[in-house]
Please model this.
Amino acid sequence: MNTSLLYVVANVLLLTILRRSEAQCAPNSTVDFNRKDFPPGFVFGTASSAFQYEGAVKEDGRGASVWDTYSHQFGHILDFSNADVAVDQYHRYREDIQLMVDMGMDAYRFSISWSRIFPSKIIINSQSSSFRSAHCHVFMLY
Model:
């Protein structure tokens, strides 16, 4: 199945469940649903975006990204926050992966900041491969 079609099917299914729960719920109540409510073979997963999760912006040779520069300029971000630390997945990936295992996730899509791989236009950062390798090694343990 192509990725676009899979994305559409997953979103339609999620919207159907949400609308069903809205129709059946009174304010402040909950609706229970579990894996049996989804078709066989449905993959439950999670995803992360490097800027929001990775952190460690000045470690292991990482260069500044466009968003790093933008978020550090006065007046662009209302609460003056940035992703210098984010949720610190760079250092806490083992704990994060364990949480996904504990939650019963079947898949995880993660991204790595391009500025960690290419800190400048012409230099490839060899230290970034150890970060990717460490993630993949921990995934294979499960």
Observations:
- DSSP finds six helices and two strands in the chain.
- The mean pLDDT is 80.
- The CA atoms of residues 56 and 69 lie 15 Å apart.
